């Protein structure tokens, strides 16, 4: 059922159960850039709680605040007001070094540009977050993840020897390696053809269903959003609606209304 919510009512948009642990909490978050005539309020008193093991798509017109939401939630940018908690940890109390460690150890990222290191092999790219944290990779887990993303026979290849879809698979395995609290995916299929995009979206869906990961995906594509449990819609920096058990048609219709 498509239910409209005011910002105050969007407290748990992904699950009906109130006793599930929260992977991510945003409480009345505001983000302001600039001042005076150049002042832009990118997020306006935005509140959202995502439970562990949920898959949420974030959509909205251009300039609605989607990327700002991701950046504030992932500790890439600081909220001007309000509270952001990741796994119960308040990000406002962390200095830049602590935020860097948090992003490395407790957050996974999947971007439209794959951001792989060209000189490293597939396996080395996957284990890079652990090596940066001075943690010894578990070879069994690395093999399991490479098998999960269909690249166990390409562990020693370099990114330049792979297709775009295969490189994105490496990025997903890299995001999963540290078992993060949340995986943030920013337009992860934007540079891929339709068939390859479907494979990547199914991998993210499997990460939620089989591994219990929490995924937050910014997308403009209603088909991509239909793989999520829930789609939340932003407009002018506010959360204005949510669709549970989304279909591509329902999401497209809601986007048409927002952009109209």
Commentary on this structure:
There is one protein chain. This protein is α/β, with parallel strands linked by helices. The protein has one domain: P-loop containing nucleotide triphosphate hydrolases (Rossmann fold), CATH 3.40.50. Helix content is 33%, strand content 25%. The chain contains eight helices and eleven strands. It has a seven-stranded mixed beta sheet, with helices on both faces. Strands 3-2-5-6 form a four-stranded antiparallel beta sheet, with helices on one face. A hairpin with a 6-residue loop joins strand 2 (22-33) and strand 3 (40-51). Helix 3 packs parallel to helix 5 (164-176) and helix 5 packs parallel to helix 6.
Describe the secondary-structure layout:
Layout: E1 2-3, E2 22-33, E3 40-51, E4 55-59, H1 66-73, E5 81-86, E6 89-90, H2 96-106, E7 107-111, H3 122-132, H4 139-148, H5 164-176, E8 182-186, H6 194-211, E9 215-218, H7 222-225, E10 230-235, E11 238-244, H8 248-259
Parallel strand pairs: 4-9, 4-10, 7-8, 8-9
Antiparallel strand pairs: 1-11, 2-3, 2-5, 5-6, 10-11
Helix pairs in contact: 3-5, 5-6
Describe what is shown at a glance:
With about 260 residues, the chain is α/β, with parallel strands linked by helices.
């Amino acid at each position: 059922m498509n239910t409209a919510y005011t910002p105050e009512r969007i407290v748990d948009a992904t699950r009906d159960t109130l006793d599930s642990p929260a992977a991510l909490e945003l409480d009345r978050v505001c983000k302001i850039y600039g001042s005076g005539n150049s002042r832009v309020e990118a997020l306006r008193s935005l509140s959202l709680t995502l439970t562990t093991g949920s898959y949420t798509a974030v959509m909205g017109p251009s300039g609605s605040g989607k990327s700002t939401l991701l950046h504030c939630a992932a500790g890439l940018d600081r909220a001007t007001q309000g509270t952001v908690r990741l796994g119960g940890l308040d990000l406002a109390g962390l200095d830049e070094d602590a935020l860097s460690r948090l992003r490395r150890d407790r957050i996974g990222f999947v971007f439209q540009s794959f951001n792989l290191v060209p000189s490293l092999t597939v396996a080395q790219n996957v284990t890079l977050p652990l090596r940066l944290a001075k943690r010894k990779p578990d070879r069994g887990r690395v093999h399991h993840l490479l098998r999960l993303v269909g690249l166990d026979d390409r562990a020693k290849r370099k990114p330049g020897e792979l297709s775009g879809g295969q490189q994105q698979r490496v990025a997903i395995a890299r995001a999963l390696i540290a078992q993060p609290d949340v995986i943030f995916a920013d337009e992860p299929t934007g540079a891929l053809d339709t068939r390859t995009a479907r494979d990547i979206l199914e991998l993210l869906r499997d990460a939620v269903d089989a591994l219990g990961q929490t995924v937050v995906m910014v997308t403009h594509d209603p088909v991509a959003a239909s793989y999520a449990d829930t789609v939340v819609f932003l407009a002018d920096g506010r959360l204005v609606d949510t669709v549970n058990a989304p279909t591509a048609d329902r999401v497209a219709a809601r986007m048409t209304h927002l952009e109209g």
